[in-house]
Amino acid sequence: MKIHKRIHEEGTKAILVTCAIVAAMVALVNLLWPSQTVWHYLLYAFFLVVLLLTIRFFRVPIERKTTLVEDAVLSPADGEVAANEIVMEDEYFHDQRRQVSIFMSIYDVHINFFPFDGEVTYYKYHPGKFLVAFNPKSSSDNEHNTIVLKDRKGREVMVRQIAGFVARRIVCGLQAGDKAVVGEELGMIRFGSRVDVFLPLDADVKVRIGDKVVGKVTVLAGLP
What we know:
This protein is of the alpha+beta class.
């Protein structure tokens, strides 16, 4: 499948700042050491890589097709499945849920997507720490957004956007009552992070730890 990409609006400032820093560093290097050497070219290559990685981070796969499957919960993020376990969810459900966690590296698309059609029934932002995303405590202790979605059959799934050690900005403008359309943008997390999905215990999970998942494409689980 051919994917064409554009840059997310959240990346404009970061890319401009990176360009300014790179330009300043190049100017400084040439001011202090005007005679060009192999070290200059190595530094130029390094600065170029940093700039290209920054631009690539904010890419949006605008022609990626949403998987449409009845009673399915799609992956809300690109990344690797880092956890699949039963946990006690104390913020909203106050009972046991199946938690599937997706670790997003800096190389993954960082747009988050609605995993199914429905309505936002709960939304809350939580300030917090910036533990590494693989830390089990990051789900509750790190800065995060909690979003609960309910489909037309009354089934609810929680999506939690979690800031990581590097990620310092979670983007999400939702509020209770908003419509959730499967495959549309839910938000994004900048520079490496994690997304947890809390499912009913009887959900049929289709992925395993270590699997690579693609946002709005991979079927994460089936709902009864």
